[in-house]
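Deviation from plan, reported transparently: adenosine-5'-diphosphate complex.
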Amino acid sequence: MTNAALLNVEGIRKSFRKPDGGELLVLDGIDLTLREGEIVGLLGRSGSGKSTLLRLIAGLSKPAAGRIRYLGQDVTAPPPGIAMVFQSFALFPWLTVLENVQLGLEALGLPAEEIRRRSLDAIDLIGLDGFESAYPRELSGGMRQRVGFARALVVHPNILLMDEPFSALDVLTAETLRTDFLDLWAEGQLPIKGVILVTHNIEEAVLMCDRILVFGSNPGRVLKEIKVDLAHPRARLDPDFRDLVERIYVEMTARVAAEHPSRRVERFPGAGIGSILPHVSSNLLAGLLEEVAGPPYDGEADLPVIAASLHMEIDDLFPVAETLQMLRFAEVAGGDIRLTAEGKEFAIEDTDQRKRLFARHLLTYVALAAHIRRVLDERPSHRAPWSRFADELEDHMSPDAAEQTLRAVIDLGRYGEVFAYDDRAHVFSLDNP
Ligand code: ADP
Ligand code: MG
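Because the crystal trials were delayed, the predicted structure below was used instead.
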């Protein structure tokens, strides 16, 4: 016998309009059910549409297609039984903790005494007892985040939507808040019936969720649903916990072809001129290559192991690993990173040889870098303004993505000494600095 459904999401599609008039498809074919007593995780990299889905569920925006029902009713406006917790809260600096929490109840038109009583209860519950009359500026980041939780819980919502609520906190504070939340949840003390937790932190998802929907990007979609059957309290070092983390890495590094059987399997996905490039530091590229090349990995490593030893989350690690893949210095698949012969060569060479190798790969495998170099070679002045390439990229992507992509290729070009860029004049050139 399964519990009643609090929320049904069926076939959700959402797109935004691009500057050139085209559509950016952000979510496609999303199905999700939240039942009473469940914590469901939406796990994916930055840009996979998690926050967009949460806003749709909260009734703050409308889908292009599909249906969202809360307790059987179509969601067309923010339902009173759904509350949100964010990465950081806009607390009112001139209001005390108690007044900030009471704000959560203002819209409900309750008697003043009831508002006060419920607010004090929520403050107690979330561990802020004694801080009722403190002002936000007097609180640490963790305590401020607790005020945010109290403000959401004070309305006694059926569903709590949490959008990366621990990601702005330091490691220890985040873990304390997570375990406090889980303890209250397990003891049935929280005035909520179900939770959807958005996160890009794999371990956090395994620690907290009953089910995890692993999201892929472009467009955002569910790659896999993973049930977490581990008993609470969960231990990160438990072999079953580690196995599940590993399994999720494998899902997240699966080849695109597995999801789109019609597409050819590319061993190295191409970086055509319209590709959005992640902006990663060349230090990190060289650092990761050296790490994987050295002992104990010897050229091949488990991504979760590397992530743990370098203290990197997927949003930091995956862009670096994928840039190495784009440059053919490594392959990423099955939750592993494996250096190519050239990747291993890079790791043992001196700086000059490294730069030469890097430049060759950059010009061969990254179409945008080759394009910029060609334009500069052909112009008598050997110079071209930023706008020359930004305009071109904006035919393919949003202005933000174009800026990020140009910044990324500038760093790669500088490192390989393939071209130079003057940030004050906004000009690309072949000057050697
Ligand atoms: P996540 O929360 O997984 O990081 P988001 O839901 O914030 O992802 O964003 C998904 C994609 O939708 C991104 O490419 C983002 O740039 C785009 N996006 C989000 N909101 C808007 C908007 N209001 N207008 C245009 N594009 C948007
Ligand atoms: Mg988000």
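The two ends are 70 Å apart (CA to CA). We consider this an acceptable substitute for the interim report.
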